[in-house]
Every structure is written in structure tokens, then in C-alpha cells.
């Protein structure tokens, strides 16, 4: 785990970790040397030496303590700098990776779980370098150095000091193995609780509207109780094994003191040697006494590490090694087959052509495959069979970023960031001037509205366009598409949920946007696509009908049936009897 984390760190971070470890080791050894000087000086005075030695000890001790303090501060600073640099590196890697996933990944992973990984789990990784690695290296080195030194002084007392360490290690490993299993469940319970909480906060307006519906709140409360229970279980498990671990070390220390006392009484060892063992055995055991903290840190970090690298090593949209570029922009679906992972839906041998510069409408009942057609074009998923080509080039052979740069997307659900209107429009194409943004806004029929705001294009809007109407959001999205000026436009009919005034402006803007472009529109209101160059009618994942509006009406098929239903619905009225 540590090796893999270090593999993505910079040379500077590795140098900082090395400096932190060396500083920590130096501080530990200096402290041991200060204690040795203190014991040695006291014994010399006790044996008739000059009391002046005590004065020299004070001077030496103060100097050495100052040096030790500098080493400790250096170690703390450098290891935390290294930890923060690793956090930055991992977060940037995660952000880049998240952009490379297909839409299928986001249908499996909930936003709350991803948020937990990017924030909490990456913070936990900092613990490896900021709180675990350098102190652990220092403690292991100092324990080995002191153990070897004391063992060389007296083998019998050294054996007493080491006697129960094998048993303690066995207990620790057993506890670690069992705790890892429970800790993973605790981490999963936490991610589930966070995800439900995110969904809960987003759905509060809906829940207020249906105040009697408490099912989701009960579900969230249940997840909180489950997380609390698993957290209590892991704490109980850790307390059990760390308690047993500490007992074996206390037993070894007691054994060493008793045997040492007997040997001192018999004259086998000197008082100086006995005191050295009593005092330095405490320093020897000190790293082992910290094992509970290391144990907890390791459990926390191991679980977070698995989730972070679960994303970093997850498969992404496969890219061709030899990328090709489309020169023309006709689109051909040839025998395309596709099913979602749940196998709830299948697209079966679908073939059609979108001529360059034409407008093609996708029609069908809910779940018929309209959105799947556009998702496959955008490579949110990849087809299981067949091919999709733009200008004769298979989209699998195109550079993914280049493919997306050739397509403007205007969907019903507009994503807006908590930033200025200028930057939200510029989201469609970076490195553009304000004048270009204004021109795009004019074409999208939204400039007059923006100009009327107190701060104009520098007006900040809330996350997801809080404070804007649905029609205004749609026109901002169209402005992005104008700015991008891609040769292919994908539209999810965006006039289905707007008022008549906004609908008129949006229709004008779309008509301008579609000029000389290959347009694919998902149609909900059939009256808006009567003039389409071709209409593709889908039913249960199959292309059921194809043609122009008048031709499809003459066929008296599914399209004619849908048209008749919408015509009837258009005359529907609410009647209130008083």
C-alpha cells in the first residue's frame, strides 16, 4: 500500500519524507542519549565522582534538548508538507480519472460515495505520510537500536525483555486480520450513509411537499444506526486485541525487572546496568505502546486506500492507439447492438444514416431507446456490437476529446456552476473573449435578459442556476453550444417544460444553431419536428419506422398513433364545478 502511494508522489515529496524520517530518528536517538548521560552522570556522582559533572550535564542537556526540538519540528513540518502534496496529487489524479469514465460508471457509483472518496478518503491517505510513515520508521529503528544495545549488555535480561514479543505479534496479526474485515464494512456503511444524506438534502423540497412520506427519512436513519453499530463493533474489536497486546509487553517488562532484581541481589550485575535496563526498556517498549495508534491509522488508511485506488485503477473509456479524425460529419449507425449491465434493455441491430447538414428526430415511447442512441454517439457507453461512424471514421478510433469537441449538447437538465454568467457560457469553450460570449448570447436570445441584470455578464448565479427560470437556463445552454460551434448538435427537446414566451425564443435560437449542422434531436412534442429531414421511430430498442412526418402518418403505424394521442391531449382542459 505505502509503496503504491509513494509511486505517484513527486521527487520533492519523497525527499521530504526521507528528511522527516531522518529527523525523527535523530530526535529519538538524541533523547535516548540524553537519558544515558543523565543516568551515567548520577551513577558517577553516586560512586564518588565530582559534583561538577552535574553542572556539565545541565549544559549538555539543554544544548541536546534544543537540537532535539529542532529535529522534532523539522520532522513534523516536512512529513505534513509531504502529506499535503500527496493529497493534492491524488485529488488531481482522481479528477482527471473521473472525466475518463463512461456514464455507466456513474450509474453504479453514487455521487455521495465519490464525494467521500475525494474528500474523506484522500484526507485519510495524508495520514500515511503525515502521521504514520515517518514516526513508524523512527520508532522501528530506535527500538531495534536500543534492543540490540541492551541485548549486548546482558543476554539474560535481553531475553526477558524480548520474551513475549512473539506472542504479542501473533495477537496483533489476528486482530488486524479480523478488524480489516469489519473496517471494510464500516467504510461501506459510511459511504452509504453519506450518499443517502446527499440524496436526502437534495430531496428536501419534494419531501416537504409530501410531508406524510417518511420512508426515505427512515431509510437514512436506518443507515445512521447501521454505521453506528459497525463503528462500535470495530472499536470493541480493537480494544480487545490492543489490550491483549499491551498485556504481553507489560508481562515482559515485569519479568525483566524481577529477574534483574534477583541478579542485582546476587551480584551478577551492577546497579548501573540494572538502571540502564529499567530506564531504557521503557524507551524500547514506547514504540510498541504506540501500536494501537498505528493500528487504528492503518485500518483507516487501508480502507480509504482501497476505495481511492478502486477509482484510480477502474477501467475507463477505451481509446484507440492510432486515432483518426473525421473530415465530414454524416453519422452512420450500422447493426448497432447494446444492453445495459442490468440487461433490462437491449438495442437490437439498429442501422440508420444521418446525412451531413440534416435534422433527424428520434421519436418513441419512454424507454424505447431514444436516449441510448445519443449516449452511444457520445460514448457515454460503447456499443456491444456493430459500429457508429462519423464521416466514415469509427468513433472508437477517434480521440475521445476530439470526438466530444465535434459535438454540441443541449439537454433538458442544464448543469450550471456557482459562478458568473460569463464563465457559465464560457464553459462551452475555454479561452474565448467576452465579445464572443456576448455574440453567442445574442444568438441564443438571452443577451437582453443578461444585460438587464445589475452586474450583467459578471452576475453570479447559484449552483445549478438557482434563481433562474427553466427557459433562461436552457438559453444559457444554447449560448454554450453557439460558442462551441461544433458541426454536430445533439438536442434533448428542451421546450417541453418551458412557458410559451421562452419556447418561442428557444425555437428561434435552435433554428439558428442548427443551420448547416448535423442535428440529432430527441423529440417529445411531435409538433416541433414536423419539418425534420427524417424521423426515426423507436420501439423496445428497435427502429420501428423511418421517414418524414407526412410519410409516417400515411403508414398508420406507431408514429401516427403517437401523433393522434398528442393531438387529443392538446385539447385537454381542466373543468372545475362550483
TrEMBL record:
What sequence ranges are listed for the domain ABC transporter? Answer: 331-565
What InterPro entries does this protein map onto? AAA+_ATPase, ABC1_TM_dom, ABC1_TM_sf, ABC_transporter-like_ATP-bd, ABC_transporter-like_CS, P-loop_NTPase, Type_1_exporter
Q: Which residues form a coiled coil?
A: none
Q: Which residues cross the membrane?
A: 15-38, 58-78, 128-150, 156-176
Pfam family example for this protein?
ABC_tran
Task: Kindly give the membrane topology term recorded for this protein.
Answer: Multi-pass membrane protein
Enumerate the UniProt keywords alphabetically: ATP-binding, Membrane, Nucleotide-binding, Transmembrane, Transmembrane helix, Transport
According to the entry, every stretch annotated as the ABC transmembrane type-1 domain falls at: 15-300
Q: Which GO terms describe its cellular component?
A: plasma membrane
Locations listed in the record: Cell membrane
Xref: SUPFAM superfamilies: ABC transporter transmembrane region, P-loop containing nucleoside triphosphate hydrolases
| PROSITE patterns in the record | ABC_TM1F (PS50929), ABC_TRANSPORTER_1 (PS00211), ABC_TRANSPORTER_2 (PS50893)
> Could you tell me what this protein is called?
Putative ABC transporter ATP-binding protein
Instruction: Supply the source organism for this entry.
Output: Candidatus Ordinivivax streblomastigis
Amino acid at each position: 500500500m505505502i509503496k503504491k502511494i509513494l509511486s505517484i508522489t513527486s521527487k520533492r515529496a519523497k525527499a521530504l519524507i526521507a528528511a522527516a524520517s531522518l529527523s525523527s530518528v535523530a530526535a529519538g536517538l538524541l533523547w535516548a542519549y540524553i537519558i544515558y548521560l543523565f543516568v551515567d552522570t548520577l551513577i558517577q556522582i553516586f560512586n564518588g565522582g565530582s559534583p561538577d559533572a552535574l553542572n556539565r550535564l545541565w549544559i549538555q542537556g539543554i544544548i541536546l534538548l534544543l537540537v532535539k526540538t529542532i529535529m522534532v519540528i523539522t520532522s513534523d513540518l516536512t512529513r505534513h508538507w509531504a502529506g499535503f502534496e500527496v493529497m493534492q496529487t491524488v485529488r488531481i489524479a482522481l479528477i482527471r480519472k473521473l472525466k475518463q469514465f463512461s456514464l455507466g460508471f456513474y450509474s453504479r457509483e453514487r455521487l455521495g460515495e465519490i464525494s467521500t472518496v475525494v474528500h474523506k478518503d484522500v484526507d485519510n491517505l495524508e495520514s500515511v505520510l503525515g502521521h504514520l510513515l515517518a514516526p513508524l520508521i523512527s520508532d522501528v529503528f530506535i527500538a531495534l537500536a536500543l534492543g540490540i544495545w541492551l541485548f549486548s549488555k546482558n543476554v539474560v535480561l535481553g531475553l526477558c525483555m524480548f520474551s513475549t514479543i512473539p506472542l504479542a505479534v501473533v495477537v496483533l496479526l489476528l486482530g488486524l486480520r479480523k478488524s480489516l474485515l469489519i473496517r471494510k464494512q464500516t467504510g461501506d456503511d459510511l459511504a452509504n450513509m453519506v450518499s443517502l444524506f446527499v440524496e436526502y438534502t437534495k430531496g428536501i423540497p419534494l419531501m416537504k411537499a409530501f410531508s406524510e412520506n417518511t420512508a426515505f427519512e427512515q431509510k437514512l436513519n436506518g443507515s445512521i444506526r447501521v454505521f453506528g453499530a459497525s463503528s462500535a463493533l470495530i472499536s470493541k474489536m480493537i480494544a480487545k486485541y490492543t489490550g491483549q497486546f499491551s498485556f504481553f509487553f507489560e508481562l515482559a517488562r515485569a519479568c525483566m525487572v524481577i529477574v534483574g532484581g534477583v541478579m542485582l541481589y546476587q551480584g551478577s550485575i551492577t546497579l548501573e546496568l540494572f538502571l540502564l535496563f529499567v530506564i531504557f526498556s521503557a524507551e524500547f517498549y514506547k514504540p510498541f505502546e504506540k501500536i494501537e495508534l498505528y493500528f487504528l491509522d492503518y485500518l483507516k488508511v487501508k480502507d480509504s486506500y482501497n476505495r481511492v485506488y478502486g477509482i484510480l485503477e477502474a477501467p475507463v473509456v477505451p481509446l484507440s492507439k492510432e486515432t483518426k479524425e473525421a473530415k465530414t460529419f454524416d453519422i452512420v449507425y450500422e447493426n448497432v447492438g447494446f444492453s445495459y449491465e442490468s440487461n433490462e434493455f437491449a438495442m437490437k441491430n439498429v442501422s440508420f444514416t444521418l446525412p451531413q447538414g440534416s435534422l433527424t428526430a428520434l421519436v418513441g415511447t419512454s424507454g424505447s431507446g431514444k436516449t441510448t442512441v445519443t449516449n452511444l454517439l457520445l460514448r457515454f457507453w460503447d456499443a456491444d456490437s456493430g459500429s457508429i461512424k462519423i464521416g466514415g471514421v469509427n468513433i472508437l478510433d477517434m480521440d475521445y476529446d476530439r470526438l466530444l469537441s465535434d459535438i454540441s449538447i443541449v439537454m433538458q437538465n442544464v448543469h450550471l456552476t456557482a459562478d458568473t454568467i460569463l464563465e457559465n457560457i464560457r464553459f462551452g469553450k475555454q479561452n474565448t473573449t467576452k465579445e464572443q460570449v456576448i455574440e453567442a448570447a445574442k444568438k441564443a436570445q438571452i443577451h437582453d435578459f443578461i444585460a438587464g441584470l445589475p452586474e450583467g455578464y459578471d452576475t453570479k448565479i447559484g449552483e445549478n442556476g438557482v434563481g433562474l427560470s427553466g427557459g433562461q437556463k436552457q438559453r444559457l445552454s444554447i449560448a454554450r453550444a453557439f460558442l462551441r460551434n461544433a458541426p454536430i448538435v445533439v438536442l434533448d427537446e428542451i421546450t417541453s417544460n418551458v412557458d410559451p414566451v421562452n419556447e418561442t425564443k428557444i425555437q428561434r435560437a435552435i433554428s439558428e444553431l442548427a443551420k448547416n449542422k448535423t442535428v440529432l434531436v430527441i423529440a417529445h412534442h411531435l409538433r416541433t419536428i414536423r419539418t425534420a429531414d427524417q424521423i426515426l421511430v423507436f420501439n423496445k430498442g428497435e427502429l420501428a419506422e423511418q421517414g418524414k412526418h407526412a410519410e409516417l402518418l400515411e403508414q398508420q403505424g406507431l408514429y401516427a398513433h403517437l401523433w393522434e394521442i398528442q393531438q387529443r391531449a392538446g385539447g385537454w382542459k381542466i373543468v372545475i364545478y362550483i
